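Go through this:
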Amino acid sequence: MLGTKQHLQITELCAEGAYLDGGQLGEVFLKKSEVPEYLEEGDSVQVFIYQDNLGHPTATTKDVIAQVGDFALLRVKEINKIGAFLDIGIDKDILSPYNEQKPKMREGYSYLVKLYLDNASKRICASSNLKKFLDKETPSYKPNEEVDLIVASKTDIGFKVIINNNHTGVVFFNTVFKRLFIGQKLKGFIKQVREDGKIDVVLEKQGVQKFKDLGEQILSELKSSEGFIPLGDKSDPEEIKKRFGSSKANFKKAIGGLFKQGLIDIEAKSITLK
């Protein structure tokens, strides 16, 4: 399919490059500078397939930032009368038509978009109108369920995130203890699904397991820091947040648990591995 990475078989090597078996797409051309020297006819090569300016299926071995079906943060390289053209890391830029821009794009800025294949033109396109690609049905997530997140935008109350590529949720500011940026991909946990279908998300597990996981992270840091970390129960919350992505309250509960187990000693501004 256009806009995706695939392994295709080389059917012919020539002076200009290689022709690949694209199945329903027919022959797909890969230019010589991108054909690995060790490959022969009959071998397979992983490529990304797109249409050139004449509409011919073309392959590249370059790394692409995203493929059809992905959400990705892409930079606008150029704007003309038909829309904005975004960089995905190959010679061909991707069009975002004006009617798919929400908000209207500006040259040099980056936007979170969804890549899709336009049915009429068979062109790979990008849309920043993300809502149209998300599931409108009430989800069935369970509290503390681990999910994949993409940071979509910053709001007055927190960060809007895309959950498992299917739903939107919110991570509230008072639960964020690490730097977040638009387009960032990370793990999170469902806090609750409200009666109106809105989803609250947190970046740390809730309950006892949260402190166990943080405790294991602290022990790992201690072992890689010669048994000493200059953070204790009187340390600056910002220093704790910067090193462990955790609130001071959670940090104190985690090191308290490690102390009770006889694993560490705690001072006002340091902890030491026993």
